[in-house]
Amino acid sequence: MKLWGGRFTKETNELVHNFNASIGFDQKFYHQDIRGSIAHVTMLAKQGILTEAERDTIISGLTGIEADITNGALVIDGSQEDIHSFVEANLIARVGDVGKKLHTGRSRNDQVALDMKLYTRDEIDAVDELLHTLLKELHTLMKENVTTYMPGFTHLQKAQPVTLAHHVGAYFEMFKRDRSRLADTKTRLNFCPLGAGALAGTTYPLDREYTASLLEFSGATQNSMDSVSDRDYLIEFLSALSTIMMHLSRFCEEIILWNSNEYRFIDLDDAYSTGSSIMPQKKNPDIAELVRGKTGRVYGALISLLTTMKGLPLAYNKDMQEDKELTFDAIDTVKGCISLFTGMISTMRINKTNMESSAKNGFTNATDAADYLVNHGVPFRDAHGIVGQLVLFCEQRGIALDDMTLLDYKSISPVFEADIYDAIRMETCVNKRNTLGAPGPEVMKEVIARNEAYLNQ
Q: Residue 309, Cα to own-chain centre: how many angstroms?
């Protein structure tokens, strides 16, 4: 059964049918399609367009179809071109002609717009929950590593000492913003298009605000042409997903570096690593690499939809069917990546000694040595030059600033005294930085407390 066959005298060419059909992927939102139909017939009965008996019969048929699809008793096949046709055909087969009244006052255009919004709204909640779980793992890492010293980097060069809590805290902020972006997208999409018809509304006395309330929308959309042609919310969602993947990818890049023999900051759990078919010593960070690689896949979905939409006139065009497969794939990819990444970081082992040793041997305390001189009356520009000489001295001898003798220090500047060693200790370097946003332990504890409150909201 086709919902539009009356005007046609020939059967659709099989290749055309297959090319046109979307049931292979839009079956994914049968729950949302049936939920929307139940709300629609509930509203039709309220408005006297259907009788209460007709409403109840249709709802009973729809709930039975949903249950049978869910438990496998009813298999979605390719006999219909889309999930809407499949549900309606099965409804008519079960309840008879009254099922033909289901579609009164709506079009597939507003129906598919509704289904996609409901599905996207549900998936935003699912992604948000995964991010919340990830943030809890990052929060635990932060709490446990307030005094785990490590080098901070700029240009991939060791710069100043920080802590692992501080470093991880940067990603905590990123993923917090990701959740905020998802919430913003959900707020903007949360207006119900059902009742917009094909593009110009309908002559039936629908109560669109009532339908919207049944489906937990903020209200009904206010322009029927925009209602069926709007895909802004998907572009926003895919943009938010792309940003999530960018953040995951950046973190994965660091995990890969930290896991290397050159760094040895962490050891990944065997469950999140793989070996080599030829080199028995290898333990590869494949999960981190795959998350990094799949970022491009999600970016591709965003660019594809932007390209699809860029030249479309109002109102609905079949091109918009292309929104589904790539959005579904992007959602599944992001959810899988967040879950795997969360498992990976929750099981990795932190090599605190290696992290601190790397910070010491990378002259990350050079700025603090310069500050020491400034605090003893040396102009900063002169102090900068003196510490540059210290670093050159150490590099020539393969030692750290901490390893220089006081005599060595005084040979370069007589200002140095024995208290220089305390001034350049990792603990001192970090502890002195206690402005909000810095790695000092007192301010980090304050940030962690704020994060705790955020996670418990």
A: 23
